Task: inverse folding
């Protein structure tokens, strides 16, 4: 691949010029807001697991299958969507994805059996699969060269939505029942409006890029062989596995852990889950800018391995200690994802959609697989054993030592 070819990305990757900083910043804010709304919708499902478990007499294995149904659908579709949009960007697919999530949300509110619950979860997963790859591409397009910061801003919206979901479920869905989930259709409609506006801006950027005959993107890491690139991507995916498998223990089972071990109420458990997810959102904000300043590998290495002492201590802590430990765990663990994503984008220039689809999809898939396997483990050995075992997962982060250093793309 020659130097010019390595600079060439797919249409829509041309960095926003300085004069477009205002509109680009507004687009990035819109993407973050829509990510918040998208992930708020999808976080409602695990947030109401205790309600569904009681109403439908589900066991932990079935709870895990619900998570698997949502996340596996999203995992399988996201790389496909990313590959297709690398070849032909679809500006208004973002808004369409929100409508698919809306249909899953409404079905969830009226579901009367476990198979219908699975279908609703799959629809929400499909909407998420449509949203993430193209949204990640638009975030990079609006970054103005600060790719880590842009990914953090984009991803923190999702983390904030994931954190808000359990809190809203605790005070809306738990007191008023499953049908009150339909109230969150307003969030989906708001997301549709915002993403329609983002799609218009994106379509204009694509048209101007085509008129100039330009195809932009970062410089390819030419010093790395194809085999080394493949091996590096494999390491990054293993790190994603360790992160999201561990995260699955919280998103699906943390409330049950608190209920069983400390005897707290469902609403208290949801508030404590919000504390953890809020720290995840904060860690996401920090990870991107720190990676821009000090390099992606530094953040990846520190964020995954640095969390190990806290995860090892958590299964032995009191209620107060457990809640306090979840704060550094969420902060440190979450800082890795923006750095991993931008690192992979710099490793594979011109494949922003594929990278977004592959890594978000793999993350969701590992979360789903983790939820299913950990649910079976909880049924067989007890919920406390889940956290005793998962405490060692961050040790897999030692593989980060094999990641090569990649020079950041040239700006300007």
Result:
């Amino acid at each position: 691949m020659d130097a010019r070819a390595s600079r060439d990305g797919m249409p829509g990757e041309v960095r926003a010029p300085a004069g477009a900083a205002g509109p680009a910043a507004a687009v990035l804010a819109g993407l973050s807001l829509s990510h918040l709304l998208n992930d708020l919708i999808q976080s409602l499902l695990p947030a109401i697991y205790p309600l569904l478990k009681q109403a439908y007499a589900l066991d932990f294995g079935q709870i895990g299958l619900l998570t698997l149904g949502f996340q596996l659908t999203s995992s399988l579709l996201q790389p496909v969507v990313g590959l297709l949009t690398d070849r032909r960007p679809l500006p208004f697919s973002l808004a369409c994805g929100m409508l698919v999530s809306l249909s899953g949300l409404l079905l969830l509110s009226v579901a009367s059996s476990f198979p219908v619950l699975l279908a609703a979860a799959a629809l929400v997963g499909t909407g998420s699969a449509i949203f993430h790859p193209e949204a990640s591409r638009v975030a990079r397009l609006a970054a103005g060269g600060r790719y880590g910061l842009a990914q953090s801003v984009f991803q923190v919206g999702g983390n904030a939505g994931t954190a808000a979901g359990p809190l809203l479920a605790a005070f809306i869905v738990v007191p008023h029942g499953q049908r009150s989930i339909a109230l969150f259709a307003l969030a989906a409609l708001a997301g549709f409006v915002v993403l329609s506006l983002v799609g218009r801006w994106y379509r204009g950027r694509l048209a101007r890029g085509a008129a100039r005959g330009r195809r932009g993107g970062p410089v390819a890491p030419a010093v790395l062989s194809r085999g080394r690139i493949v091996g590096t991507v494999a390491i990054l995916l293993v790190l994603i596995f360790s992160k999201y498998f561990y995260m699955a223990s919280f998103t699906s089972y943390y409330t049950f852990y608190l209920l069983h071990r400390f005897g707290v109420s469902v609403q208290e458990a949801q508030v404590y889950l919000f504390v953890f997810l809020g720290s995840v959102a904060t860690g996401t904000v920090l990870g991107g800018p720190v990676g821009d300043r000090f390099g992606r590998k530094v953040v990846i290495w520190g964020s995954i391995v640095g969390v190990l002492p806290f995860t090892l201590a958590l299964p032995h802590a009191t209620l107060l200690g457990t809640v306090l430990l979840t704060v550094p765990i969420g902060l440190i663990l979450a800082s890795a994802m923006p750095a991993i994503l931008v690192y992979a984008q710099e490793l594979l220039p011109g494949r922003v959609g594929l990278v977004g689809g592959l890594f978000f999809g793999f993350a969701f898939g590992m979360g789903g697989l983790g939820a299913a396997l950990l649910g079976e483990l909880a049924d067989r050995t007890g919920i406390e054993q889940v956290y005793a075992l998962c405490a060692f997962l961050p040790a897999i982060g030692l593989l980060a030592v094999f990641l090569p250093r990649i020079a950041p793309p040239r700006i300007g």
Summary: The two ends are 22 Å apart (CA to CA).
